[in-house]
Specification:
By secondary structure, this protein is mainly alpha-helical. The chain is built from five helices and two strands. Strand 1 and strand 2 form a beta hairpin. Helix 1 runs antiparallel to helix 5 and helix 4 packs antiparallel against helix 5. The chain starts with a helix and ends in a 7-residue tail after the last strand. The mean pLDDT is 92.
Length: 120
């Protein structure tokens, strides 16, 4: 099942790249901003609860799709672009086995524990 889910995430990642190619922005801008959602890690400098909130907000596919769809509905390409960055980055992370974080530990994610030494 894990392999099937990773394949599904790979297709979502590909969809984000394809939809981005339909926008008027240069393709390299997508890759320039691709890691921007990881700025959510900054919250971990405060504590794990705040870190989980900031990380999960920037890695939530519902938020990403809402931004993209609102941008499509109102013809705001920057909103579409931002939604695709968030969506594609989240799909890529999940394809690699990372997921939304629980507040108790950075390594405790919805698909499971990340890292070898962490016990949750």
């Amino acid at each position: 099942m894990k392999i099937l889910l990773k394949i599904e995430e790979a297709f979502m990642f590909g969809l984000a790249i394809y939809l981005n190619s339909l926008l008027s922005y240069d393709g390299w801008l997508y890759w320039l901003w691709f890691l921007a959602p990881d700025l959510g890690f900054i919250g971990y400098a405060i504590n794990t609860r705040i870190g989980a909130i900031t990380y999960n907000t920037l890695h939530h596919k519902g938020l990403a799709l809402s931004m993209y769809l609102l941008g499509s509905f109102y013809s705001v390409e920057l909103l579409q672009f931002t939604g695709l960055i968030l969506f594609g980055h989240s799909a890529f992370d999940r394809m690699l086995g990372y997921g939304l974080k629980y507040a108790d530990s950075f390594h405790h994610t919805h698909p499971g524990t990340v890292g070898q030494n962490e016990k949750v």
